[in-house]
Queue: 2 jobs
Job 1
Amino acid sequence: MVIRLLSPPPGLNNLTAYFKGAGYPMVKEGDHWFRVVGLDPQFAVGEYPVEVSSDVAAIAGGVLTVSEGGYEFVSIELPPSSIALTEDQEAAARERAALERVYSGFSGVQLWSGPWIVPTQGEVSNAFGLQRSINGGPYSPHTGLDIANVTGTPVVAAASGRVALAERLHYYGNVVVIDHGAGVFSSYNHLDSIAATAGQAITVGDLVGYMGETGFVSGPHLHWEAVIAGVRTDPGLWVEGDVDP
């Protein structure tokens, strides 16, 4: 969801968008304000009020309608080497904490421009939002878009930004996370090797690493995520057209 205040009253310094009990600081862009908010695949169908307020008063409001996503249900099998990773809950907790620290960051500037690009070559092997049962377990949504190819296939930045994380994690394997500003991030997971460093300014199309099968996987592929305010969303939406602020 992109919230835009197109005709703001003059003299505003801070605006916050309120949605489903949470406040989201807005970003000034030219003569208007905007904020991107993520909705996960299990978000309940219905109508939700959205309000934009200043420090002293409500400015504008609207209603968001959420419809059925139509995601498929599938069962997949992973090898024992991947399932064994689930036994180390301390490592999994450290991974969650590291990612939460990154995704809680918010810079009040937009670093991307125009539509994103697909970051690697290959076939889509798992769509975003697919409801998956792994080795007979409960169904849960797939949090990214999987693109499969041979190990060593180059992976590039889908959009410009700054590298927020570049390291080996537990389930995600070798990971690069890019901060695109305004609470928007992309991540590139299960890499065979990493070609970017934390803190590096990066331009769309720059190399970030090489496809691999590190972490919780069944074969070589890129697990590509778009994360908005900590919520994993469909990165393919960013390729289809410009998310215009």
Job 2
Amino acid sequence: MTTQHLFVLATGVYLVALAIVTYFTRATPRRFLGALAGGLAVAVIGVGVEVVFQTLGFWHYPSTEQRYGPLLMYPLLVLMWAVYSLIGWRVMRRFGWRGQAVFLSAVTVLGTLRDYLEAGQALGLIALAPGITTVLVDAICWAGLTALAHGVMRLVAGPSASDPLARWPCPGRLC
């Protein structure tokens, strides 16, 4: 199976995941569009992140010669971070900022492990430079891009407590 086939397959999986998460989170159309906008922001910023960190030698993609990732990766990023945004939105609605911090930490750790174990070692999609600095840079990218996606969704669709399904009013709190 080629790299392009893997990206097409993963895109199909994330389309299904997005549909399921949208259904179970009971996201409104505005919240869904906000999540897609957050995913799009991550994909656009992600190109710049790839160029910077490939130029600095932290990682590269063996399947491509450009200073950014394979082109089929970016639509996949839109879908991935739309899913993360919707899940993060529900966590924020239910558990507040503490829950959001735990969610962001979990996505950061799992995303970094995914890059090293799945994309790097198992599939060979990315070649990561050795060392703790690369791990930290990758983790910061995961945390920052996830926070960006959630922030853009909040700008488009409003705070989580403003939705009709919010569990509690949010006076005096930044929700």
